[in-house]
Write a structure and sequence with these properties.
mainly alpha; elongated; 148 residues
Length: 148
């Protein structure tokens, strides 16, 4: 066996070239590019949505949407710019989408929000959760199918 048993260096792993090639195929596929681009757009919209939907008078939900939106946008941008370093973070986007969906009832001071806030966060939260699952599923699905 050419792989040293006691070594912790991944560079000596015999399947390293195959893993890199599989990740490159995934990152350059049309599906991955579409998911990453939509993820960046959804994150930007979530960040600016308090000003678009006019709920900046609710500071807690405004800050929540700003932080979650920026986070989703940065992860999407990172997935498109450096997929080899960021692909493990793709799963984080799905729980962030679920949080956006639940946040109108959790974050607001009276634990009730106006209809515009609820509709906005439910739609963008669901979209971000689906995009997060799609981004995570692209890598998992390709690794199970094997090389083509």
């Amino acid at each position: 066996m050419s792989y040293p048993q006691g070594s912790s260096d991944i560079g000596a792993h015999p399947e390293l070239a195959e893993m890199r090639e599989r990740l490159e195929r995934t990152a350059s596929s049309g599906q991955a590019v579409a998911v990453e681009g939509l993820m960046v757009l959804a994150g930007v919209y979530a960040a600016i949505s308090p000003w678009v939907v006019h709920f900046t008078n609710e500071p807690n939900i405004t800050i929540n949407n700003l932080i979650v939106g920026i986070t989703v946008g940065v992860i999407g941008l990172g997935l498109s710019m450096a997929p080899d370093r960021m692909f493990r973070l793709a799963w984080v986007v799905a729980p962030l989408g679920v949080w956006l969906l639940l946040s109108p009832w959790v974050v607001t001071a009276a634990h009730s929000a106006r209809a515009g806030i609820i509709w906005n966060n439910c739609w963008i939260g669901a979209a971000i959760a689906v995009l997060g699952l799609a981004a995570a599923g692209l890598t998992i699905g390709l690794s199970r199918r094997g090389p083509r």
